[in-house]
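Figure 2 data, in text form.
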Amino acid sequence: MLINDSERLKRYMQRWDIAAYFSTNVTSAMHLYRFRAGENIFNEGETLSHFYFLVEGQVKAYRTFYNGRVSVVELSKALDVLGEVELVGARNTTIAVQATCECYCLGFAMAECRDALLQDNKLVIFVARRLGERLRSISRHQAMNASYTAEESLALYITRTKHGDMFTERLTEAADYLGVSYRHLQRTIAKLCAEGVLERVKGGYRILCQDRLFELTKGMQEI
């Protein structure tokens, strides 16, 4: 949703030094948008309407297959860009991007600004670097799934997707992201519940022992 709050927009631009990513003054065409938890920023197969800088909150990118299975591709938080692949490739989105909590983005309407953005050398270099970082992130994630136990990987996933003291992500998506079977994930969660780390409640799991989660993810937070 478009937010008419020039002061907040200005604060975000100053906090993240957004102007430094451009060689021309295109930031005057930038607007502030808010997305609620669970709201899709992009939908699969749609024409890209905006290019965003994620300046607050966290999102997950996911893909839905023909059999209905949902695969989480990546988790991203501020500062990040959304829609960079489609910006460069001028194609419809191939994944969906959903806010996992309340998010704020600074965005450009592509119908008005796409050509100017692609002609901005600073921005193009930044987008190219971000694409490289994204590939490295996916590679590190795959290595993590192969190198750590399901309990350790789940603990990191919980710390990255929790809302306050609640973990409410879909377990089928979590299992796919972590590279384990749904049954294995259920056993792992049951173990954490038995140890008093989690408690099953309506709508998800309440985190009872944050310290244990951080202990399990020690050395993994930079992955």
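Caption note: The longest helix spans residues 121-147.
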